[in-house]
């Protein structure tokens, strides 16, 4: 089954404690990206990657890092999480010019 | 600057009637438009798309219309069903090598039995 898998689904952490949200896709897609969804703001892109070792900032990259060492994986790293990063996060993948497939989301709370 | 706007935060319709969700955009470089549907506790799922070279695309009960001169698109759902109740996001993709999706804020559709 074609899918984008994120882990964990839910996470509560404390300010400053580094965390990683994993994302994996099994569709051999070149393009992957991370979004955050906040009330009244819709989905905003954090980072994206057009292929292995090629990443770039989206609209709201501050406080986040990503890596793309393998085509299927695109982890999101928060080196020092802060409460304003409490949000619902989605990973997505696509071929370059087709619709994006989304993971089920990771609800992160930073206290 | 919000490049994709969904001005109606919510919409309520009766089962069997038509649902019309609207979306406006400002960037004339957008060349591909998509609608996503999102249920609570799930990721957005792709619904239907349209290229900027077309003005209509239909898939079963769902039709998307694009008016490039007005920079406006709409999603029609006919007939609406209670299972269609969800948040609908309009998204647009920039032209050329920019594959980023820019999303609107979403419209919550409620279909009443």
Polypeptide structure, described:
The complex is a heterodimer of chains A (111) and B (113). Chain A has strands at 4-7, 10-13, 19-25, 31-38, 42-51, 54-57, 65-66, 76-78, 87-94, 101-102, 106-110. With 111 residues, chain A is an all-beta fold. In chain A, strands 2, 4, 5, 6, 9, 10 and 11 form a 7-stranded mixed β-sheet that branches. A 4-stranded antiparallel β-sheet of chain A has the order 1-3-8-7, with no helix packed on it. In chain A, a hairpin with a 2-residue loop joins β5 (42-51) and β6. The radius of gyration of chain A is 13 Å and the shape is globular. Chain A starts with a strand and ends with a strand. The mean pLDDT of chain A is 95. Chain B is an all-beta fold. Chain B is 0% helix and 57% strand. Chain B is built from no helices and 11 strands. Chain B has strands at 4-5, 10-14, 19-25, 30-38, 45-51, 56-59, 62-67, 72-77, 86-94, 101-103, 107-112. In chain B, the strands form 2 sheets. In chain B, strands 2, 4, 5, 9, 10 and 11 form a 6-stranded mixed β-sheet that branches. A 5-stranded antiparallel β-sheet of chain B has the order 1-3-8-7-6, with no helix packed on it. The termini of chain B are far apart. In chain B, 35% of the residues are buried. The mean pLDDT of chain B is 94. Classes of the chains: A mainly beta (111), B mainly beta (113).
